[in-house]
Amino acid sequence: MLNAVFISVGFLAACGGFLAAVLVMAEKKILNYGPCEIDINAGERELTVDGGSTLLSALAENSIFIPSACGGRGSCAYCKLKVSEGAGFVGPVEEPHLTSEELKTGVRLSCQVKIRNDLKIEIPKELFAVKHFRAKLIGKEMLTYDIAGLRIELIEPQTIDFVAGQYIQLESEEYKGREEVMRAYSISSVPSDNRHIELMIRKVPEGICTTWVFDYLQEEKELYFSGPYGEFHMSDTNAPIIFIAGGSGMAPIWSIIQKMVEKGIQRNAVYFFGAISQKDLFYADELNKIADSSEWFKFVPALSQEPEDSDWQGEQGLITDVVKRYFPDTSAHEAYLCGSPGMINACVSVLTEGGMPEEKIYYDKFA
Amino acid sequence: MKRSPAEDELIQSLGPSKFSAEGFMGHDTRPVDEIISADQRKLDRLGISIQTLVNSLKAVYQQAQQAHGAEIQIKPGVFATFYESRGRVPSPFKTDGVFEKGEAVAREKETGQQMIITQLGIALIERHHFFQGIGSRYRIDPEVAVRLLGLATFKGDAP
């Protein structure tokens, strides 16, 4: 009796093992898509990759880094790009992240597109210049009670080419059970210093990456990032400029202003820095120094909730109200904004009410 | 009781992840549907509908956001401040999409009682009636919310 049980169990186990082996073999044979061609931007670049992987990882293996914060799980929706041919059906993970217009035009999450055949895709040209960097933190200082300034020296590659206004994706390490993550931060340094980058990072309560930066990232420690990303940069016109940004939103604006000083670009510019109180101000001395030594630049810090007994002599009120007071007519200006979507939307309203065409408003939304 | 793969996936999504350091459950060990039922009962007792609460949370979030970090008054003694943050956070319920990360912190000065209102937090309540687990930083306790938003008066509240 016992023998019969053992024989039956053994037979079933052998059958299971055999079926599993058949499935593995079948997957290799049947699902072997072989080499697939990826045509990027109508012949601008062509890649031959092994089928079966995702588009995001196949591009990364070929040093084309598409922004991604979730590591390919289909949840951050940063890795969108247009697939004009060969992508297959949109899956349930992708669908909630795509607008009807995007669905119509073939926009997909590259992390969810599995390469099964040849593909034709379109990606912004500037992504070809994105590289993965090994670097070292060489300076860390508190700019305010909750904003840190980082200075980072590049190790490999040793230099970076970026345009003032662009951002990088910093990779945090695992700590206290937190997974490693990637988060976007604008570069605050000037492009000519191409062996370093500087960042301004505000501590976010419970923020995975900012907690790592503030509590675990020490000077001399190696770190990794990819970049540069983004299309936010100063235009080539001579229109007078209105800059609006507060807090860590100053980063890309500071990069642009430093570039203007360095290159002798003397376009009339006013920088409105919105803050709650004096404890939120930083780099005011540096910006006032530029304003004092030049005709073309003016710095206007404005505080929205400074204590009543304060010695503050400058502007007070919401930054949008202050901008309106200075520029009731904005029709001849261009504006450069950096901050939260709410702040950007409010500024866009004020500027367009003043007559500024919306296409003259450039912004880096914290989104 | 055996859970379906979808339930397993949801439980995993509600835990700590690349997007939420602490996850959405806090130290609450109850199943999600039990948390939802308990909070629904609380709201029912207060005579407030989910939609009324959601509309009020949305209004406070928007007003605080438009103040660009300056404190706004919700009702006497209760104030809210908006803290902006770069990036977006996906919902643990996969089909909801992604949400702005900024948060409005509403706080009663005298008692220190507070709640943190986020776009995702509002969406979780509106779409799934999920207020998050006890101990989660972003839990919006129905009683606390109704009280801070002034949707009902409680014993001991100023008239």
Question: What features would you describe in this structure?
Answer:
The complex is a heterodimer of chains A (367) and B (159). Chain A has 367 residues and is of the alpha/beta class. Chain A is 26% helix and 28% strand. In chain A, strands 9-8-11-6-7-10 form a six-stranded antiparallel β-sheet. In chain A, helix 7 (319-326) runs parallel beside helix 8. The longest helix of chain A is centred in the first third of the chain and has 29 residues, at 2-30. The N and C termini of chain A lie far apart (69 Å). In chain B, helix 3 packs antiparallel against helix 4 (119-128). Chain B is built from five helices and six strands. Chain B is globular. The longest helix of chain B has 17 residues, at 50-66. Chain B is 36% helix and 17% strand. With 159 residues, chain B is α+β, with helices and mostly antiparallel strands. Chain B starts with a helix and ends in an 11-residue tail after the last helix. Chain A binds chain B through residues 69-71, 73, 75-77, 92-93, 95-97, 177-179, 181, 183-185, 202, 204-208, 211, 246-248, 274-276, 280, 304-305, 318-320, 339-343, 346, 366-367, and chain B through 16-22, 62, 65-71, 82-88, 90, 94-98, 100-102, 137.
